[in-house]
Amino acid sequence: MQSTIQAAVHTTGTQPLAEASQPGRLVSLDVFRGLTVMAMILVNNPGSWDHIYAPLEHAHWHGCTPTDLIFPFFLFIVGVSLVYALDGARQHPETHGRTMLRILKRAAILYGLGLFSALFPSFDFSTVRIPGVLARIALVFLVCGIVFLKTTWRQQLGLLATILVLYNILLQLVPVPGYGPANLEASTNLGAWLDRTILGEAHLWKQSRTWDPEGLLGTLPAVGTGLLGMLTARWLRQREVAPATKVAWLFVAGGACVVLGLIWNGWFPINKSLWTSSYVLYAGGLAVAVLAAFYWLCDVQGYRGWIKAPLVYGVNAITVFFLSSLVPRLLNMIKVPSPNGPTGLRTWLYDTFFVPYFSPINASLAGAIVCVLIWLGILWVMYKKQIIIKV
């Protein structure tokens, strides 16, 4: 699942905002983050978009595939990380002003990275996509960071419930101007209308230009996903509770969220593009269970022999996500001769080293796996040299 990028080389004693990989933090969180970003790289970089195994694609509309879990897992991790990064500052109200400025600064940098990625390489501001993955991460980080500083866990739980119910009401009861009754169709739901009204069609997802999967209204329940992560972290930080008890109750809570999400799916369908309330509970419940399992294995039982690959991804997660979106475009700007005329270097590499040796769908998968492995090699070297790029 981090020029415009603000870099810093890790030194002992430096504690970056929302970083959970330092001594005394959760190893399991970096592992979870790393596996999530590895999955993100895999699904975002197939050899060919025309040949993809079904689990590596998003659901067409309603429904949920494994790929649809990647982004909510990452936002859940953002919520967990915030608690570990800001708990000390939260206990000192006199520092809240400075802490909020730090939160705002990091959110601005994250959004700037997303905007740069959307602009590159043409830098056409007239059609640049304003929403996006990094933009949503930035907004969730900003809102959840401020909420954590200023509210109790009970207030956060109440806010989560309010957001989920309110969003359901907005999408299923509020009429859509110019279209009539409330509906959940891609181009005519309330969120799509709001995006077109405020941002304009030219600045939405280029595959549709009539709606955006990371639109404005959908960011509201995405904040709910971050809140679930915050509530999970606050439970994990209860020092008077035994680790086994923490894990047991996390599995109970995660399972309850999944069941509630599936029940709610009956009238407000699970849908990633709309980020429906049922989707928040379903994906968030699974995220709680996954973190609980990793926490038990890595932090409690100490089984860490297998974690190196996800760990090196986890400590430079935003970096690899940002760069992996730019490198394919850079490679295809380099033209090389081919029987059909000049072609981009990335396309030539894929056609030369993958297409002749696999079936179309396996060639596409092999290309994605090699991409993950190449980035693993780069990140491994960075990890060995203690180079961790911060934003």
TrEMBL record:
<feature type="transmembrane region" description="Helical">
    <location>
        <begin position="279"/>
        <end position="298"/>
    </location>
</feature>
<feature type="transmembrane region" description="Helical">
    <location>
        <begin position="107"/>
        <end position="123"/>
    </location>
</feature>
<dbReference type="InterPro" id="IPR012429">
    <property type="entry name" value="HGSNAT_cat"/>
</dbReference>
<feature type="domain" description="Heparan-alpha-glucosaminide N-acetyltransferase catalytic">
    <location>
        <begin position="25"/>
        <end position="239"/>
    </location>
</feature>
<feature type="transmembrane region" description="Helical">
    <location>
        <begin position="156"/>
        <end position="174"/>
    </location>
</feature>
<keyword id="KW-0812">Transmembrane</keyword>
<feature type="transmembrane region" description="Helical">
    <location>
        <begin position="361"/>
        <end position="383"/>
    </location>
</feature>
<protein>
    <submittedName>
        <fullName>DUF1624 domain-containing protein</fullName>
    </submittedName>
</protein>
<keyword id="KW-0472">Membrane</keyword>
<feature type="transmembrane region" description="Helical">
    <location>
        <begin position="248"/>
        <end position="267"/>
    </location>
</feature>
<feature type="transmembrane region" description="Helical">
    <location>
        <begin position="310"/>
        <end position="331"/>
    </location>
</feature>
<feature type="transmembrane region" description="Helical">
    <location>
        <begin position="215"/>
        <end position="236"/>
    </location>
</feature>
<dbReference type="Pfam" id="PF07786">
    <property type="entry name" value="HGSNAT_cat"/>
</dbReference>
<feature type="transmembrane region" description="Helical">
    <location>
        <begin position="69"/>
        <end position="86"/>
    </location>
</feature>
<feature type="transmembrane region" description="Helical">
    <location>
        <begin position="129"/>
        <end position="149"/>
    </location>
</feature>
<keyword id="KW-1133">Transmembrane helix</keyword>
